[in-house]
């Protein structure tokens, strides 16, 4: 009985941690959308803070993602296939937004210049995909609606294939977690790179030529030149920022409600 209680407590603690992690990520996404709320400098630093949280989320939910992908080939598993597709698209969008923001930030350009693609094109990618990311976050909320409500009601749900510790089962080792993190980073890098080249290929010829003809500043260039590559700093405007934050939260919740109750999205 003591072992069973300990296992149940471990599962409860894990779910509580996931709820806190996911809530923090959701708030950060909504705060980062209106740059006026934080100003560009804090926007960039909060974006850097979001990166490890997303990686941790993927690593902790790894077995659940694996279970979802395995279920895509089953007959009549359209709901699983739709869920897998939406989650995959969200991962690609999140990777593209975070990587583009990182490579276009003043902190990165001061160190590496244009060593990893054109800074202005990364800035284009970041700007174009931000709102799309909010929409997919809303769809993700719709998919996980039941799990979220159950967790908030403290019924401690367990997703199929989760890493909750069960009697007679070992939790993943540190080496496995590090391996999952490495694979996640590799996939995210490929997703961000593919998005970069896809958007580059769809740019109008004149704009693409302008980007191609700009002289790349080497990593050995002076810092003043590199800083000129990054977006112009913008100060915070709290009132406008709060309005934008409210719009972002409203859009995410509206998409979640429509996805849940109109399109019947669920796991």
Notes on the structure:
- The protein has one domain.
- It contains eleven helices and no strands.
- Helix 2 crosses helix 4 and helix 2 packs across helix 8.
- The N terminus is likely disordered.
Topology:
Blueprint: H1 2-32, H2 35-60, H3 62-70, H4 78-104, H5 106-112, H6 119-143, H7 145-152, H8 174-202, H9 205-213, H10 223-227, H11 238-261
In short:
This protein is an all-alpha fold. The protein has helices spanning 2-32, 35-60, 62-70, 78-104, 106-112, 119-143, 145-152, 174-202, 205-213, 223-227, 238-261.
**Residue-averaged pLDDT:** 82
Q: What portion of residues is helical? A: over 70%
Report the end-to-end length measured between terminal Cα atoms. Answer: 32 Å
Percentage beta strand: under 5%
Largest sheet: none
Count of DSSP H/I helices: 11
Residue stretches low in confidence (pLDDT < 50, at least 5 long) are 1-6, 160-168, 216-221
Number of domains: 1
Rg calculated over all Cα atoms? 21 Å
Secondary structure: number of strands: 0
Element pattern in H and E: HHHHHHHHHHH
Looking at the structure, what is the overall shape?
Answer: globular
Structural class: mainly alpha
Descriptive labels:
11 helices, mainly alpha, 0% strand, globular, disordered N terminus
């Amino acid at each position: 009985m003591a072992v069973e209680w300990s296992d149940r407590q471990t599962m409860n603690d894990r779910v509580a941690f996931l709820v806190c992690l996911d809530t923090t990520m959701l708030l950060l996404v909504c705060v980062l959308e209106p740059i006026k709320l934080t100003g560009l400098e804090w926007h960039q630093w909060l974006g850097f803070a979001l990166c490890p949280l997303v990686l941790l989320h993927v690593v902790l939910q790894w077995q659940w993602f694996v279970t979802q992908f395995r279920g895509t080939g089953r007959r009549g598993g359209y709901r699983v296939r739709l869920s897998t597709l939406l989650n995959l698209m969200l991962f690609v969008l999140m990777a593209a937004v975070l990587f583009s923001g990182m490579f276009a930030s003043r902190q990165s350009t001061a160190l590496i210049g244009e060593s990893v693609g054109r800074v202005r094109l990364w800035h284009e990618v970041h700007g174009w995909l931000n709102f799309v990311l909010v929409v997919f976050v809303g769809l993700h909320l719709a998919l996980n609606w039941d799990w979220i409500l159950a967790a908030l009601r403290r019924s401690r749900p367990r997703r199929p294939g989760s890493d909750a510790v069960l009697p007679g089962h070992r939790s993943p080792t540190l080496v496995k977690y590090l391996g999952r993190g490495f694979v996640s980073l590799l996939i995210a890098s490929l997703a961000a790179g593919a998005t970069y080249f896809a958007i580059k290929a769809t740019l109008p010829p004149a704009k693409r030529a302008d980007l191609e003809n700009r002289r790349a500043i080497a990593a050995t260039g002076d810092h003043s030149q590199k800083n000129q590559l990054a977006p112009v700093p913008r100060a915070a405007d709290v009132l406008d920022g709060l309005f934008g934050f409210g719009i972002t939260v409203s859009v995410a919740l509206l998409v979640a409600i429509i996805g849940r109750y109109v399109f019947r999205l669920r796991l």
